[in-house]
Design brief:
The protein is 55% helix and 10% strand. It contains 6 helices and 2 strands; from the N terminus they run ααααββαα. The protein has a two-stranded antiparallel sheet with strand order 1-2. Strand 1 and strand 2 form a beta hairpin. Helix 3 crosses helix 6. The radius of gyration is 15 Å and the shape is globular. The two termini are 25 Å apart.
Length: 132
């Protein structure tokens, strides 16, 4: 780990321990499969913490230090969510294209699946400097 990465993680909202595990160790273990494996881990995590409402989902997402979740748009066939806040700003600013949000996508997909009682998939559509 470089000094720059250490400095960023130690001062990040997610902290050194979580940041190292999430953005250094897991990608080192999972390699090219990081995004896909984290997606399924996120789905499994959501099964441990099922929520019944959008408000509960927003609260749980913050408690898990994933970021600030907002429902932007909802239609009968799709939903657009925005994940932002200091955690996301910090993670995206480190290495925009390399940062995986598979865990958050899988988690969100499973939680929405519980609420809608139908199969749901999630993906990152846009990456910005302060939200995904």
């Amino acid at each position: 780990m470089s000094q720059k990465l250490y400095d960023q993680l130690i001062n990040s909202p997610q902290g050194l321990n979580t940041g190292t595990l999430r953005d250094v160790i897991l990608p080192a273990i999972l390699g090219k499969e990081t995004d896909e494996m984290l997606y399924w881990i996120g789905k499994d995590l959501a099964r441990q913490y099922p929520v019944a409402t959008t408000n509960d989902l927003v609260t749980l997402t913050q408690q898990l230090a994933f970021g600030d979740l907002t429902l932007v748009k909802k239609t009968t066939t799709s939903q657009i969510w925005r994940l932002g806040g200091p955690v996301i700003i910090n993670r995206v600013s480190r290495d925009n294209e390399e940062t995986s949000f598979g865990l958050e996508c899988g988690f969100l997909a499973q939680e929405v699946e519980f609420q809608l009682n139908t199969i749901v998939e999630a993906k990152v559509n846009d990456r910005h400097h302060d939200y995904v």
